[in-house]
Amino acid sequence: MQFFSWWRSLASFRVRIALNIKGISPEVMNVDLMKGEQRTETYRKLNSQMLIPALVTDEGAVLFQSMAIMEYLDDVHPHPNLLPSEPLARARVRALSGIVASDSHPLVVPRVREYLEHELRLDEAARTKWIHHWLAAGMVALETNLAQSKETGAFCQGDNVTMADICLVSHAVGCNFFKLDLAPYPTVRRIVETCMKEDAFAKAHPLKQPGAPAAV
How far is C-alpha 50 from the chain's CA centre? Predict the structure, then answer.
C-alpha cells in the first residue's frame, strides 16, 4: 500500500489519523504541493485531479478524496470503527465531517489561495480575510452543533472516536496554521485536546511529518 501525502496537507492529515487508528503503515510518498509536484505527469496519471491524498491499495486500486479513503479503510478494517453502526449517529458523523471536508477546507487549500493571489490579484490582507472567514464559518457551525447536541460526549459522537473527530482536529490545526483564535469555540477545543492525547492523532500531526519545519 502506498500513501501519497504532504506534511502540511490537512486532507492527508485526516487520512494519516485514520491509518494510525487502524494500525496500517503504508509506504509514504511525498508530494510537495508548493513545488507543484502534484502537477507532474507521473502524479497526474495516478490522480487526474492532481490533489492529495491518494492511496494505492495492495491490489493496485487508486483511491482519492480523504473522506472516501477513510470510509474505504473503515469498510476493509472495521475495528475500531470510524462510523457508528446506528443510522442516525452515522448520518450525524458524516454531516459534522462534511462541514470541514466539504464546506470550509476546500475554500482555503493552496490552489484556491493561488487563484486569489495570481488571478484575482488579492493582496495578503484580503487573502487572509478570506481564509479566516471560511475557517471561522466552519468553526461556528461545529461549535453550535457540538455544544447543543445531546449526542456529543467526550468526542463528537458519544465517547468513541469517529471520522467527525478526525475532521474536527484537522480543521483546528488548520486554524492554528492561519492564526485563527479558537477561544470562542470551547466545545471544539475540549474535544480537540482530548483527541490529541491519543497517539493516533498526535503522531499524525503535520509538524511531526518528514519535511515539516519546527513551527509554522
Answer: 17
